[in-house]
Structure prediction request, 344 residues.
Amino acid sequence: MRVLGIETSCDETGVAIYDSEQGLLAEALHSQIAMHAEFGGVVPELASRDHVRRLLPLINQVMQEANCAPSDIDGVAYTAGPGLAGALLVGASTARALAWSWGVPAVPVHHMEGHLLAPLLEETAPDFPFTALLVSGGHTQLLAAESLGDYRLLGESLDDAAGEAFDKAAKMMGLGYPGGPNIAAYAERGEVGRFVFPRPMVDRPGLDMSFSGLKTYCLNTVQACGGEEGMTEQDKADIAHAFQEAVAETLYIKCRRALQETGHKVLVMAGGVSANLRLRERLAEGLGKMDVAVHYPRHNLCTDNGAMIAYAGCLRLLGGELQEDLHIRVRARWPLMELAPIAS
Ligand code: KG4
Ligand code: ZN
Prediction:
């Protein structure tokens, strides 16, 4: 089975073709980061308009690269939520129109299920059941993933998502958008131990998390160093280091606790923040001692992309997901736990 996947939930236009026998045939991505950077974050209307401009050329590009004619495509998967409503509508209406005209099913995909399944595209793919840490710009969740579509929430951030906290901390230091990769780069030059940030909610039982206090702590430290204008490059690096350590340590502690609860021996980590090398290192170091294997996607599949949507759509079609009517629906908010299990 061959599926065209379309991702337009936020600031990346992603398109890919996945074949259940041959794997990923082609993928293309246009990032809007440069366009939004001057505003310090994503401007929804600009995002939607740019998806309109980019999507069809990217679809043509992957169809050519994969040497596919429309008759070779068995389904069109698209991100139906959660995300920016206008941006989602661009992908949903394009996907539905193509699927209708090609006479194939259109498959709505949950963006976070796309992230969750991305590590399964790797050669050493983990099997269900596993414990999952989803860490993106909008979500920080720990789940027990029993089978495709059967996800149980174990804990989540009660305020900011980890990626959002990275972005806001970076903004305070004038490091630009998106903050995660910039904080990570500065952190490499940071002095170990000059600042120690708190590990929020680790001394309380349970698996919920909170990152907004860390953000306030960061702001106070930035101000103590003279604010964005007054601080030196070394101050920025030292704060970035302390911030990244605190996030990595907090996520590690919560993952360890989640694994003790589920008894799983596999942790799957996905979403933009899973690209963070220090977080990967901390999890490997700590969870390796518990004999837990940690899986994450290759670097370019951590952040938003079309491949994860094509793959999730293909698994759902193979699992016999029923077709919806022709209405085009998107959901800006959509809890992952509302998905129903799909027979494998
Ligand atoms: O999954 P994603 O591309 O979009 C959402 O679905 O939200 O995640 C984007 C988030 C941003 O907050 C970005 O700062 C963060 O992922 N991110 C990182 C890194 N690369 C991206 N955070 C920490 N370290 C990174 N290397
Ligand atoms: Zn995402």
User: Anything to note?
Assistant: The mean pLDDT is 96. The chain has two domains: 2-117+301-338, 128-296. The radius of gyration is 20 Å. The domain at 2-117+301-338 is CATH 3.30.420.40 (Nucleotidyltransferase; domain 5).
